[in-house]
Amino acid sequence: MARKYSRAAVREEADREEDEQTVAPAECWLCGRPLGKNTVMHHPVPKSRGGRDVVPMHPIYQQTLMANFTNSELQRYALDVEAILANPDMRKFVDWVAKKDPDFHASPAKKKR
């Protein structure tokens, strides 16, 4: 039996419905700014330390977290953003990036461990 609608037409209709729904832009877990096109789902507690929760974050922040903190420190801080931002290097970096475009990218910092 012939189909009433082609599969392509069904997909186009579904895509149109998704476009019509207004989705609030997600916010970065660390800085609270809207996320750009590039987003990283970050484990605040590293997977190697039993972390399962993920949070959306700008990729540049994840690189900086890995450069400034060990897995043990990240496990200790867990989901406490204020404890992470208490580190002067992280606070300075987040304040600097806050003035940039959400998709801003720079080379990662060298590890300070």
In short:
The chain is mostly helical and 113 residues long. It has helices at 7-20, 59-68, 71-77, 81-85, 88-97; strands at residues 40-42, 55-57. α2 packs antiparallel against α5 (88-97).
Characterization of the model:
The chain is mostly helical and 113 residues long. Helices cover 41% and strands 5% of the residues. It is built from 5 helices and 2 strands; from the N terminus they run αββαααα. The protein has a two-stranded antiparallel sheet. Helix 2 packs antiparallel against helix 5 (88-97). The longest helix has 14 residues, at 7-20.
Annotate the secondary structure layout.
Blueprint (H helix, E strand, L loop, with lengths): L6 H14 L19 E3 L12 E3 L1 H10 L2 H7 L3 H5 L2 H10 L16
Output the keywords:
113 residues; mainly alpha; two-stranded antiparallel ribbon; 2 strands; 5% strand; globular
Radius of gyration: 19 Å
**What can be said about the biggest beta sheet?**
2 strands, antiparallel
Strand content: 5-15%
Strand arrangement in the largest pleated sheet: 1-2
> Quick check: average pLDDT?
80
The structure class reads mainly alpha
Total beta-strand segments: 2
Tell the overall outline: globular
The number of helices is 5
Low-confidence stretches: none
Instruction: Report how far the terminal alpha carbons are from each other.
Output: 67 Å
Helix content: 40-55%
How are helices and strands ordered from N to C?
Answer: HEEHHHH
